Amino acid sequence: MLNFSFQNTTKIHFGEGQIKSLSQEIPKDAKVLITYGGGSIKSNGVYEQVVAALSEHTFFEFSGIEPNPSYDTLMKAQALIKEHNIDFLLAVGGGSVVDGTKFIAAAALYKGEGEGADPWDFVAKGKAITQALPMGCVLTLPATGSESNSGGVVTRDGNKLPFFSPLVRPLFAVLDPAVTLSLSDRQISNGIVDAFVHTMEQYLTYSVNGKVQDRFAEGLLQTLIEDGPKALAAETTNDLEVRGNVMWAATMALNGLIGAGVPQDWATHMIGHELTGAHGIDHARTLSIVLPAVMKVCREAKQEKLLQYAERVWNVTEGDVDTRIDRAIALTEQFFESMQVPTRLSHVDLGEADIDALIEKLTEHGMVKLGEHSAITPEVSREILMTAL
Ligand code: NZQ
Ligand code: ZN
Q1: Which domain holds residue 309?
Q2: How many angstroms does the Cα of residue 106 sit away from the middle of ligand 1?
Q3: How many domains does the chain have?
Q4: H/E element holding 357?
């Protein structure tokens, strides 16, 4: 196992009715800005629960944070923050609202120096975030893990890029599986596939004998394989135990635990971000297209873990090395298909002619040494996209 330091300070309130805990979690004298998206929280009762919990607080609202939140939208919150001396942010929504609120939190206390200084530097130039407003969240879509991690993703002019800082990790996260009942099938499956791929990005690399991390990861994958389809099936779609297991799996998949002390890949995500940036494809649907191709192109470098994945996650033990790996990749694709997400570029109407521009963007964004061995050059990314056609 590799050396690591691990700390996750987000306090989780899990279960039905936990939105009430907001009244205790946010200081009574705080001036709170509730941030949210396009209005799902107004039609599913989440907004009412939040407002009821904050009946003794002073709060304001900022809405309209869109999926794949844009810099332009997020910067509009700054005037409101100044006007009302906001000192606490409460994100109520999916990963986009939580990510966007993280950016708002850092931008609010940004003191740029020099001409052209801009909070976008956190994203484009990796400039360190040195201060951020405190924030908490009520998660409504299990998927990203953003509710208890220190990362976010923001888009500006078709450039979709990540940023990181422990200062933007939410202080608390409310995870009530009941609020996920209003999700569309598309968002349910997107969330499950995103959580699955987060686990794979930290698991399917090379072995460093991290037994705890590996077995946690395998448990998360099996949970998602078992309960993912149940969350979509008509008879079980309203089962709160299923929703709860999916929700907790998604949080655990990207809260730092399974990634501590092991190599990580993230090539699928970085290539996927270009597909979203250029073509607006849902985040998870880019991953279900790219991951099987990464497994195929990197099968030698990942051989040992692919065989472990085949055996421990899918019970594939028969046949020679190639047969078992082929079977594991095919079963992964079948799982994605059962979750109703695309597994080929052609499924989203993209073809060979679109690949050059994607590779150009990857290169422009510095994504030229991806993967656990930094071996995924733009040429290898091209091969991955060609394999995904
Ligand atoms: O905007 P509203 O009206 O709330 O509707 C949203 C949105 O249209 C809707 N929704 C959310 N909760 C709902 C609901 N509809 C009905 N009932 C509910 N309970 O779902 C739509 C999609 O929401 P979004 O927040 O965009 O989805 P998701 O949680 O999948 O977040 C995706 C974003 O997170 C980033 C992605 O790149 C993408 O920008 N990621 C963030 C990560 C992180 N911070 O660690 C890691 C991930 O890999 C990912 O990159
Ligand atoms: Zn993701």
Answers
A1: 185-387
A2: 20
A3: 2
A4: helix 355-364
CB 224 within 8 A of CB 196: yes
Q: Burial letters for 77-108: b for 16+ Cβ neighbours within 10 Å, e otherwise?
A: bbebbeeeebebbbbbbbbbbbbbbbbbbbbb
CA of 37, closest atom in ligand 1: 1
Domain's final residue, options 178, 206, 240: 178
One digit per residue, the tens of pLDDT, for the chain of length 389 reads 999 999 999 999 999 999 999 999 999 999 999 999 999 999 999 999 999 999 999 999 999 999 999 999 999 999 999 999 999 999 999 999 999 999 999 999 998 777 778 999 999 888 999 999 999 999 999 999 999 999 999 999 989 899 999 999 999 999 999 999 999 999 999 999 999 999 999 999 999 999 999 999 999 999 999 999 999 999 999 999 999 999 999 999 999 999 999 999 999 999 999 999 999 999 999 999 999 999 999 999 999 999 999 999 999 999 999 999 999 999 999 999 999 999 999 999 999 999 999 999 999 999 999 999 999 999 999 999 999 99
Q: Are residues 191 and 332 in the same domain?
A: yes
Q: 182 CB under 6 A from ligand 1?
A: yes
Residue 377 Cβ < 6 Å to ligand 1: no
Alpha carbon 1 to chain centroid distance?
25
Measured CA to CA, the distance from residue 284 to residue 277 in angstroms comes to: 13
Out of 125, 148, 178, a domain closes at: 178
In this structure, the residue with its CA closest to atom 50 of ligand 1 is 153
Distance CA 296, CA 254 (A): 24
Distance 109 CA to ligand 2 centre (A): 27
Quickly count: other Cβ atoms within 10 Å of residue 30's Cβ: 17
Tell me, yes or no, whether 362 lies in a domain: yes
CATH number (domain holding residue 212): 1.20.1090.10
